[in-house]
Amino acid sequence: MQGANSHGQLGHAYAEDVYEPRVARCELPAGGLRALCGGGGHSALITEAGQLLVCGQNHRGQLGLGHTSEVTTFRLCFSLGQRSVRQVSCGWDFTLILTDGGQVLACGSNTYGQLGLPQVPGHTAEPLPLQALKEHVLCVAAGLRHALAVTCLGGVYQWGKGLSSQAKRALSPQAIPEHLTSKEPCLVPGLDDVTPQRVVAGAAHCVCLTTGGDVFLWGSNKQGQLGTTRSFVAWPALLDRTLMGGESVTDVWSGWAHLVAKTESGRVFSWGRSDYGQLGRAVSASQSLRVPSGDSVTVDSGLVACIPVQVEALAGAAQVRG
């Protein structure tokens, strides 16, 4: 693992940035790893046996280890007991854990209601179940200070106030929709006629992929990541398929302010913020997008790219993940 390591989140037993790939220090059970995830300053791994290992920044208890001390090597999360972990998603300073049984647990900061646990005033170092989610959960996503979940009955739930300030500025004098301000899971309206299968989250935006291959986006569009002319989208808006050759999307991933999607033919598209090379492709000096409203979007080179454009080098990629 390599990159920023100021809190020991790479698992190398020290807290200095790493510029070349190095093997993280952790004792893994037989079978290896199934998944890994990174947050603002912490990391999490899931083993093939469904165990959760964590390391890094822990000042808000985001590692779920029962304490708030920083950890620089991967440690097994004993707080989960015998629960088998299916998915983990790391926000800025909180963590969502989805078990094989469809239960969601959360730990870390709850300053913005991002844990979905209104009874927790500040933070928790123990992973606690979200009792408000009564249905079996299929997928979770942690943003900067908000969270999402998809249930087996096709509902998409959102909680955390991380988007509320931007929503207030963009929508004033209109009222802010409840799903953008709720401190516990709130059903997101506008997805009744589709079947959601996956959600992902950026710093201040939300993404839902349906079983039919459609992508719905809402939240902040500051970096052109929603493919629209509006600065903020309060409710799920369908991304025009013609922007990706009319193909259905089979997988989608989100960074803090950019998106990557894979289509049915194996093509990979990216759009949004690009000043650090996030899109994996060059951004032309001027890009315009004709959107359904008839407006034109123009963005500056090296900053944002609101048009999904194919990343030729990634054609045929097995999956898109961060």
From TrEMBL:
UniProt keyword terms in alphabetical order: Repeat
Domain RCC1-like: 3-316
RCC repeats: from-to residues: 50-101, 102-153, 154-212, 213-265, 266-322
InterPro entries: RCC1-like_dom, RCC1/BLIP-II, Reg_chr_condens, Signaling_Regulatory_Domain
Superkingdom classification of source: Eukaryota
The keyword Repeat belongs to this UniProt entry's keyword annotation: yes
Name of this chain's protein: Secretion-regulating guanine nucleotide exchange factor-like
The species this protein was found in: Scleropages formosus (Asian bonytongue)
Lineage, uppermost ranks: Eukaryota, Metazoa, Chordata, Craniata, Vertebrata
